[in-house]
């Protein structure tokens, strides 16, 4: 093809708008406005990216296959290799790799665009190519170089070739805003306008006044005091543009590339052009052996400084935003200058997403810009973090945003992640408020690409590179929603499933700083929505937890851990009703129990491994399942024992007791631990009736009432808190306290609710949780208050409180002293040791003083409750399991009640019944519950979970209603009036004794 000495149009590109172009030795590559690459020229090393399998001389430009999908924004060409930069900050390379200039870690060539993996996630904003080396600038102002290093052009202090991108250490503390590569030298401009150069110096191209090669970045001191805004490098020369509009150059002048020179080499910067004759330079370009300066015509009043180009948010007006790529930068220095001029010579600038969203709300013309911006920013790890750590002051009059800081990391060195949560919220809200499905789709696709990238490379890059992105993703309102949100969620939760323990700890620390509305309303609720939308995966969970659901549970577990240390939402917010109601809890329990006590790393196979998601009702079902399994096993054992021995074995635990000697009879018959696993049946001596559950219920109520009688001496009662506590001075033996533990265990084991009033500390200790000063408030509020006041007192503790390390208490009318430490009477409590004093005081009251009694109680409890199911419960849930709910929702009970023997919900007597019940006092309602169920408290889950039946018991009569407490059945005659029903019912519940058996 003939050489051209005058510009000619490349007709093959007439149908494309070209936004950037670069030339190598024998090839040219262009970027179109759609993000595709078009290339032509020599292809002997694959530098055109065609992957044709043969050497191609591309006479006409052709689109590189697949490049449009990657949405390229910049391109750079070396001698025989090419770099291409996507709008999301990823670098691709192809062509000659013999010097390592492709950055793939080898010396192989590549004929198609291939990702430079080492730069993934760093957010590259500018690329540059020398003859056989490459450079990249990140959004954080760091410079990476690789390839040929013979002359020190890589800046690493050596002349070795490097096959992977490496950060230039000498520039780490400098905020670099622009880079350029010559044939064998490299340059960088910092944010304060200084120029650094390094590499081949034979032709003076480094500007240091010497021919010596420079192996590390060195400031060009001849330009000190001047502010540089742009640099360009040719094969052996360099040109720079200053803020005053002056152009300087140095290096090889053999081909007059520096204009008129006194010699063939210009070792120091020479003024090439200044603002004159109404012209002001916009940018300067150093070609291989030539130089060009592009100017604009200006009026006299327009003369002034050019603004230095910084990597800040693009705050262009709407008119400029609607043209080209969202990451297209503005020119330095002039709002009125078309930002297409020379933009490819400068780094990409991140767009102001909020400004663009506001523009779209005002005019649909900006929709394409927003689509590109979302694609670029939300698919880039680093860009996303930088955008949401920018500190922006928004003018209340709606003027353009004013940049305050380059990168603002609010709280990054403290507990928080340093993200602008309000900005994140505003962007998401603004995008969704547009009600544009295409924009939502673009956002979804970008976030999916983002998380897919993290999934792919998370094992190869530091977690610190992308951790914060997970929080930005979690805040997205699409999480858990159908459509785009579903795929976002799948990939996001997949990452949570794989993060390290250290990353989880950091995530927990960050999460604790979030506002409650975001933590609960966005994070927790979003994950619950995702799980609820997968009911089919829950109901078919016999084979284990589906991978999608497992990832979401991993994310939820991190939130739960964060919440457990800094309560942001109630623990009940973590209950997932979909799992609790639809999962196969029986299969889940079997899988869990099989791995529960594994010695090695326990695989995740069951929902029981995430107990915080299970409602108390679900946990209660699992516990009853476990109890039934143990009962069945004990029954089988009894049968087998009888088969192989002459000894008769009763398959049931039958307690025959006298009302007058309830405790002694029970204690005597609970002697054998193995019997405790058998199904329980109770017989009251001298009384008729078969125990189908009702007798057992009353037995427990009577026994508990007697054991907790203060006169019995086992427990003390605090009138203020209405709680019982272990009597440290009790004369009873361990057997009695073990019996109380047995009774609690048997009640749980047999599904009976008990009317006992322990403080929360007891339930925590039952689950072997630690207790603290906070728990003492429930037991001894006055003592707890005094200790708290001592602990936070600002003055001198010793002189004010006059305490020592002793406790004085009364023992049968005699004052006793207990030393908290050895010789505690001679150790005063001071500001320095008060923390230890409070800790020891609490430990004595809640642990040491009752150790013998509580240990016996604990032993008795675990003689019955030995299965793993109890570990699923929080202490609050254990209290609920044992004691039931103290409040009642009779509307819920009405909704679930069944009717038999001729009654329906529309029967007149039934309507009267519920009117009477709802008009009852609280005490009367408790009496009704006790009369019909044998207990005056609601079960776990409330009255909505109670199986309650009302059956017709004949025609109108004066007989009272009766009940089968075993089955929660109330038998009501067909009374003739509401008043008669009310009279008969209240009389029955007020005078009920025994078991209500007909």
Automatic annotation (TrEMBL):
Mind telling me which SUPFAM superfamilies this protein's record contains? Answer: Hect, E3 ligase catalytic domain, RCC1/BLIP-II
Return the RCC repeat spans. 1-34, 35-88, 89-140, 141-192, 193-244, 245-297
Q: Where in the cell is it found?
A: Cytoplasm
What keywords sit in the KW lines? Cytoplasm, Repeat, Transferase, Ubl conjugation pathway
Report TM segments.
none
Q: Which PROSITE patterns match?
A: HECT, RCC1_2, RCC1_3
The annotated active site, in chain numbering, is 966 (glycyl thioester intermediate)
Any Gene Ontology CC annotation: cytoplasm
Q: Name one GO molecular function term.
A: ubiquitin-protein transferase activity
Q: Where in the numbering of this chain does the HECT domain appear? A: 672-998
What protein does this entry describe?
A: HECT domain-containing protein
């Amino acid at each position: 093809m003939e050489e051209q000495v005058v510009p000619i149009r490349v007709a093959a590109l007439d149908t494309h708008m070209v936004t950037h172009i670069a030339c190598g030795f024998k090839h040219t590559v262009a970027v179109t406005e759609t993000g595709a690459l078009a290339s032509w020229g020599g292809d002997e090393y694959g530098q055109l990216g065609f992957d044709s399998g043969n050497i191609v001389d591309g006479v006409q430009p052709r689109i590189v296959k697949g490049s449009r999908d990657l949405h390229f924004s910049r391109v750079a060409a070396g001698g025989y290799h090419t770099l291409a930069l996507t709008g999301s900050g990823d670098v691709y390379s192809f062509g000659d790799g013999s010097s390592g200039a492709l950055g793939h870690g080898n010396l192989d060539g590549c004929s198609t665009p291939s990702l430079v993996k080492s730069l993934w996630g760093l957010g590259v904003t500018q690329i540059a190519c020398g003859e056989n080396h490459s450079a990249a600038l990140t959004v954080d102002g760091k410079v990476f170089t690789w390839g040929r290093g013979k002359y020190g052009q890589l800046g690493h202090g050596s002349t070795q070739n490097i096959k992977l991108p490496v950060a230039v250490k000498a520039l780490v503390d400098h905020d670099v805003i622009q880079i350029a590569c010559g044939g064998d030298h490299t340059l960088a401009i910092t944010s304060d306008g200084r120029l650094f150069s390094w590499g081949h110096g034979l032709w003076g191209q480094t500007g240091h006044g010497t021919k010596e090669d420079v192996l590390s970045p060195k400031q060009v001191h001849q330009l000190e005091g001047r502010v540089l805004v742009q640099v360009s490098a040719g094969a052996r020369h360099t040109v720079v543009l200053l803020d005053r509009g002056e152009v300087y150059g140095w290096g090889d002048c053999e081909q007059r590339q520096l204009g008129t020179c006194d010699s063939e080499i210009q070792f120091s910067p020479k003024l090439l052009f200044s603002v004159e004759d109404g012209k002001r330079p916009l940018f300067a370009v150093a070609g291989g052996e030539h130089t060009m300066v592009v100017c604009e015509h200006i009026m006299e009043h327009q003369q002034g400084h050019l603004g230095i180009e910084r990597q800040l948010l693009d705050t262009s007006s709407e008119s400029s935003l609607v043209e080209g790529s969202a990451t297209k930068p503005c020119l330095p220095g002039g709002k009125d200058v078309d930002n297409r001029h020379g933009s490819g010579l400068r780094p990409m600038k991140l767009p102001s997403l909020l400004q663009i969203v506001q523009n779209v709300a005002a005019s649909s013309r900006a929709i394409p810009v927003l689509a590109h911006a979302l694609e670029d920013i939300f698919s880039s790890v680093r860009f996303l973090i930088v955008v949401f750590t920018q500190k922006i002051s928004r003018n209340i009059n709606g003027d353009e945003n004013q940049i305050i800081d380059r990168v603002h990391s609010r709280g990054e060195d403290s507990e928080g992640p340093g993200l602008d949560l309000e900005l994140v919220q505003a962007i998401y809200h603004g995008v969704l408020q547009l009600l544009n499905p295409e924009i939502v789709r673009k956002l979804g696709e970008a976030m999916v690409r983002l998380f897919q990238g993290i999934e792919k490379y998370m094992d190869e890059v530091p977690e610190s590179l992308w951790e914060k992105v997970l929080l930005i993703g979690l805040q997205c309102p699409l999480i858990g929603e159908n459509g785009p949100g579903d795929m976002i969620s799948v990939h996001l939760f997949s990452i949570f499933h794989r993060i390290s323990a250290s990353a989880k700890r950091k995530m927990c620390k960050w999460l604790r700083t979030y506002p409650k509305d975001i933590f609960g309303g966005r994070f927790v609720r979003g994950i619950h929505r995702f799980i609820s939308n997968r009911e089919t995966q829950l109901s078919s969970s016999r084979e284990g937890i589906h991978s999608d659901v497992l990832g979401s549970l991993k994310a939820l577990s991190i939130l739960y851990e964060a919440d457990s240390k800094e309560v942001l939402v109630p623990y009940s917010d973590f209950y997932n009703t979909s799992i609790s109601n639809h999962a196969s809890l029986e299969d889940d329990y079997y899988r869990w129990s099989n791995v529960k006590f594994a010695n090695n790393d326990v695989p995740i196979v069951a929902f029981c491994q995430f107990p915080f998601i299970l409602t108390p009702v679900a946990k209660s079902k699992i516990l009853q399942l476990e109890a039934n399994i143990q009962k069945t096993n004990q029954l089988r054992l009894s049968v087998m024992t009888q088969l192989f021995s002459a000894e008769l074995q009763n398959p049931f635990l039958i307690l025959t007791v006298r009302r007058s000697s309830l405790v002694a009879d029970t204690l005597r018959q609970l002697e054998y631990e193995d019997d405790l696993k058998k199904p329980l049946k109770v017989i009251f001596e001298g009384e008729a009736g078969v125990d189908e559950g009702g007798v057992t219920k009353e037995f427990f109520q009577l026994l508990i009432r007697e054991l907790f009688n203060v006169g019995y001496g086992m427990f003390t009662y605090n009138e203020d808190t209405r709680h019982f506590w272990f009597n440290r001075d009790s004369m009873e033996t361990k057997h009695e306290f073990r019996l109380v533990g047995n009774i609690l265990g048997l009640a749980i084991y047999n599904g009976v609710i008990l009317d006992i009033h322990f403080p929360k500390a007891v339930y925590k200790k039952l689950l072997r949780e630690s207790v603290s000063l906070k728990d003492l408030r429930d037991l001894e509020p006055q003592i707890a208050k005094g200790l708290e006041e001592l602990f936070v007192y600002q003055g001198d503790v010793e002189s004010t409180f006059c305490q020592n390390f002793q406790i004085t208490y009364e023992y049968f009318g005699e004052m006793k002293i207990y030393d908290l430490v050895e010789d505690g009477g001679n150790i005063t409590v001071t500001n320095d040791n008060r923390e230890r004093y409070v800790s020891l005081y609490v430990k004595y009251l809640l642990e040491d003083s009752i150790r013998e009694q509580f240990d016996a109680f604990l032993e008795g409890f675990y003689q019955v409750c030995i299965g793993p199911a109890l570990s699923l419960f929080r202490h609050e849930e254990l209290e609920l399991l044992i004691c039931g709910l103290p409040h009642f929702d009779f509307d819920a009970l009405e909704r679930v009640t069944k009717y038999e023997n001729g009654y329906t919900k529309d029967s007149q007597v039934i309507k009267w019944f519920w009117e009477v019940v709802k008009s009852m006092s609280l005490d009367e309602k408790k009496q009704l519950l006790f009369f019909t169920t044998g207990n005056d408290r609601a079960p776990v889950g409330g009255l909505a979970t109670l199986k309650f039946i009302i059956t017709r018991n004949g025609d109108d009569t004066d007989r009272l209603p009766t009940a089968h407490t075993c089955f929660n059945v109330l038998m009501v005659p067909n009374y003739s009036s509401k008043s008669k029903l009310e009279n008969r019912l209240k009389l029955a519940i007020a005078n009920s004794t025994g078991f209500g058996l007909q």
